[in-house]
Amino acid sequence: MKKKILAALLCSAAAFCAIGFRTDATGISLKKSAQTKSPYTGSTYTHAEAFDGMTVYNGIDVSKFQKTIDWNKVKAAGTDFAFIRLGYRGYSNGSLQEDEYFKRNVSGAIEAGVKVGLYFYTEAINESEAKEEAEFCIKLAKNYNITFPIAYDYELSNKSGRLVKANLSKAAATKDCIAFCDTIAENGYTPMVYSNKSDLGSRLDGAALGEKYQIWLAQYNTKASYTGRYQFWQYSSSGTVNGISGKVDCNFWYSNKGIEENPFAAATAEPAASAEPVSLEDAELESLDSVVYNGKEQKPEPAVMLEDEILTPEEDYTLSYENNTNPGKATVTATGTGNYTGEISTTFKILPRAVSSFKGKAAASAITLSWRKVFHASGYQIYRKDTVNGTYKKIKTVTSGSTKKWKNSKLVTDHEYYYKIRPYTNSGSSTL
Q1: What is the pTM of this model?
Q2: Over the stretch 102-127, which tens digit does the pLDDT of each residue have?
């Protein structure tokens, strides 16, 4: 007897010691070619003549890499201001991510009396993405009293990142900075560009940007040699600040205004007023495709939409899961956070793995099918078609997941038959 067997799955910062007069605030008034010693690093720094007569303030910048910070100790150490990383764009996938420590850092710093600015690490490769990053910043910043600039962190630190690979022209990269900064300014905040001396000259039009926006210069020397305009100078990445474990980035800010005057207030938006809580009762969860069992927790992330608006994970809601490891029906629940309350759930299927080693042995008027047992299968469904162009029909349900063989008898001699098999699992009253 001829036979043919086909197997398939049916589913698929501190204060300074300075030359000059110490004001009532923590800042230091500079004289010509003033030098100050930083207790953060122990080194003496020479300030550019462009800042003669101005006041210099101490600041730091932090992100998740500093982990938990005691902001009261940081403030007591003489820190006037801090730039806190709000988020970043992924090096490879380009997704926008909130810094894991953003909320606790910004809340802790403000509560301790430290003036706060923000920065976003960009991997934007066009103006649209740069604007998207700015909008992401605004959405998170509006809930806090941000009195210092929001900075566009332009640096090519990841050599395999999408920004490096894009190899943007100087004009294109500068346009991205402008798109970000203009969007920030349109929403009432002070924009700023962060970059190092080299990139401000070679990859960006630092001179043009400095005419319109605040510039935060990164140059790790005891005297900055950059001749363009800048208001902030990140002079070291290896400072030590009481209240923070590990090394910290250290910054100077030069100003003709006292820090308590909120020098950026004219361009800073008021914190958003508290709104009435919104229930997720009328929200919709994105439907989820079935997944195949792999022995691990399955955690798909469905979008949550409310009145045509896609809500923001972690900010507007969190996701939790039930029965999401073994084959069966799993549940994912979105629970409101921030200004959102209530919860909404949906289910998705975890299907058994496909059958492997599906074989057949022909005999007179019969074919014996065999296969390898599928873990977590409740049984198997066997399908057959009698001609190559025919339609598969289910001919047998094997109700034991431990069964590994079945004989199909009473077949026509010298005839081709085609088979496929799928494991199934019982989930409550349903069969998956």
Answers
A1: 0.58
A2: 999 999 999 999 999 999 999 999 99
Q: What is the pairing mode between strands 291-292 and 278-279?
A: unpaired
DSSP structure string for 129-152? HHHHHHHHHHHHHTTS---S-EEE
CA distance 313 to 307: 16
* Amino acid letter, residue 161: G
Residue type present at position 248: V
Integer Cα distance of 393 and 418 in angstroms: 10
Percent helix, strand and coil across the chain, each to the nearest 5? 20, 35, 45
Closest CA to 134 of 74, 104, 176, 71: 176
Q: Are 333 and 345 in contact (CB under 8 A)?
A: yes
Q: What is the pLDDT of residues 43-74, one digit of tens each?
A: 999 999 889 889 899 999 999 999 999 999 99
**What is the C-alpha to C-alpha distance for residues 209 and 197, in angstroms, rounded to an integer?**
13
List own/partner pairs for 62-68 with CB under 8 A and 24 or more apart. Answer: 62/101, 62/105, 62/244, 62/248, 62/249, 63/99, 63/101, 64/99, 64/100, 64/101, 65/246, 66/101, 66/244, 66/245, 66/246, 66/248, 67/101, 67/245, 67/246, 68/101, 68/104, 68/245
Q: CA 396 to CA 358: how far, in whole Å?
A: 15
**Could you count the other beta carbons within 10 Å of the beta carbon of residue 264?**
20
Residue given tokens 């764009």 in the structure block: 89
Measured at the CA of 288, the angle between CA 284 and CA 290, to 5 degrees, comes to 160
Instruction: Let me know: does 310 contact 340? Beta carbons within 8 Å.
Output: no
